[in-house]
Amino acid sequence: MKKVILISIDGMRPDGVLACGNPYVEEMMKKGSHALDARTVIPSVTLPCHTSMFHSVTPERHGITTNTYMPQVRPVSGLAEQIKLMGGKSAMFYGWEPLRDITRPGSLTWAEYFNAYADEHTDGILTDKALECIEKYHPDFVFLYMVETDEKGGHDSGWMTPTYLDYIAHAINNVKRVAEAAGDEYTIIVTADHGGHDRAHGTEMKEDMTIPMFFMGEEFEAGRALENVSILDLAPTIAKIMGVPAAREWEGKALV
Amino acid sequence: MKKVILISIDGLRPDGALKCGNPFVGELMKIGSYALDAQTVMPSVTLPCHMSMFHSVTPERHGTTTNTYMPQVRPVSGLAEQISMMGGKCAAFYGWEPMRDVMRPGSCAFGGYIWSYADDAVDSIVTDKALQCIEKYHPDFVYLYMPECDDKGGHDTGWMSETYLKQVAAAIGNVKRVYEAAGGEYTIIVTADHGGHDRTHGTDLPEDMTIPMFFMGEEFEAGKAMENVSILDIAPTIAKIMGVPAPREWEGRALV
Predict the structure, then answer these.
(1) How many pairs of residues across A and B have Cβ atoms under 8 Å apart?
(2) What pLDDT shows up at residue B199?
(3) With contacts defined as CB-CB under 8 Å, which chain B residues touch A114?
(4) pLDDT in tens, B173-201
(5) Confidence (pTM)
(6) B183 φψ region: left (φ > 0), alpha (ψ -120 to 50), beta (else)
(7) How far from chain centre, in Å, is Cα B139?
(8) Chain A residues inside the 8 Å CB shell of B118
(9) Contact A231/A53 with Cβ under 8 angstroms?
(10) By C-alpha distance, which of B110, B53, B99 is closest to B79?
């Protein structure tokens, strides 16, 4: 089973990542494929968007339309459940507790949670935990979720402010650490759940709806810009790379 | 806020603790108070019993009657939510993924999960995670859940079998490590969710329904045997020690 790391940087706008000043952004665009105008789903809110990222259906189908989890009425199987079905082992590292519900209990083998305000640089702490797990256990699928860009950057001081851009620069640095430690063993995909404007998100404005994606691995052409990409395409893409079947209901397309 | 560590050893029978051969069991009974015939709730199953441990109501009230979590119909607030509401920080370290649902998202600051079959001595790994977190962040409430007595002991080889007793001895060894590292700062309560017989549990047999409890801290008289104790008393006892209010609905009583 080919191994994949999915990294979600909450609230990262494409123009934010381009303006953050971390030279590794350009590296990512040279090393692999990228999309700078991928679309998320409405509402552009963390739990609905991540549930769509993992289940490849819009919130009107999976039913999670706020940051409070609701059991699905007619459940669509998600990426973690599909990987588990095929015998794959998954790990999740996250800085916001409600995110745990994007996978059903029993689908993960390892998980670590760390509240964003429990320390400084919790994105870095979670990255350390992910790297420790990768080094020791080599899970088939790793999901690393960094929340500081959204909480401490966007909501606390405003999207595109110097503080916000600084959090993105730090998050990208964590991506670099992951790529340097595990880039040979894993295909790495970096994305966001939604953007933001002023000190909020959740609307249909393009600032909220447009997200960046970076794909690094042998399946992706170096330096290529991908078009018409949706957050719904992530689960089918990862499933195809890993040789895991897509659920019948999934609406996105595999990008490989 | 006085700090508490709650340790749950899944499937630990009182006679199992007494016969496991780890001399620290005798120490536990000398250092603090204990109950060797405390009662759990029906059904004597992991998630229903832990929901009752944290919510101080029986499964017929909280509604989780199997190992699949059900959102409460008319929610009773749990221990972690009460602590969080009073500004306390909670941490949970556990070896069985469905356990996450005994606390609502947003009530914990730290969490760590590893599947019991992901490695040898997973109880010890979750104990290490808890001790690292305690050393660095000193959370107000720490919940440590060890699954190996139940999974690898009881279900795989049978309750009271040699393997089961070995797992109990190892779990008590982890309790000792926690006590030696954090016993000065924390009151420590050690208990189980249910017992077991043959290779299963879930019935109203005394072997399934009877659980041990050990209480170590200045609130508890050394060497005292407590009577008529229920799993429903755990949350009110911890809340009282920590100075956290008990919700109107809780049915257990504080033992202090």
Answers:
(1) 55
(2) 97
(3) 109-111
(4) 999 999 999 999 999 999 999 999 999 99
(5) 0.94
(6) alpha
(7) 17
(8) 89, 109-110, 137
(9) yes
(10) B53
Q: Are the C-beta atoms of A126 and A93 separated by less than 8 Å?
A: yes
C-beta separation of B10 from B193 below 8 A: yes
* B-chain residues near A98 (CB < 8 A): 105-106
Integer angstrom CA distances of residue A249 from A55, A58, A79, A232, A256: 9, 11, 12, 11, 19
Joined together, the tokens standing for residue A148 give 């500081």
Q: Cα distance from A111 to chain B (closest Cα, Å)?
A: 5
Burial of B181 (0-12, 13-18, 19+ CB in 10 A): middle
* B1, two tokens: 């806020």
Report the chain A residue with the minimal C-alpha distance to residue B138: A118
- Adjacent-strand bridge partners of A230: A39
Contacting residues of A for B137, CB less than 8 Å apart: 118-119
Closest Cα in chain B to A137? B118
B47 near B99, Cβ under 8 Å?
yes
Record: contact B108-A89, CB cut-off 8 A = no
Cα angle: B191, vertex B38, B173; to 5 degrees: 25
Q: Which residues contact B123 (CB under 8 A, 6 or more apart)?
A: B95, B146, B147, B148, B149, B167, B170, B171, B174
Which residue type sits at B237? T
Tokens of residue A78, six digits: 């998600």
Please give the Cα distance from A123 to A143 (Å, whole number). 13
A162-207 residue pLDDT tens = 999 999 999 999 999 999 999 999 999 999 999 999 999 999 999 9
Identify the three-state secondary structure at position A233.
helix
Determine the residue among A110, A120, A143 to mutate to test chain B binding: the one whose Cβ has the most chain B Cβ atoms within 10 Å.
A110
Selecting from A100, A109, A112 the residue whose C-beta is nearest the C-beta of B115 gives: A109
Give the whole-angstrom CA distance, residue B238 versus residue B4.
Answer: 7
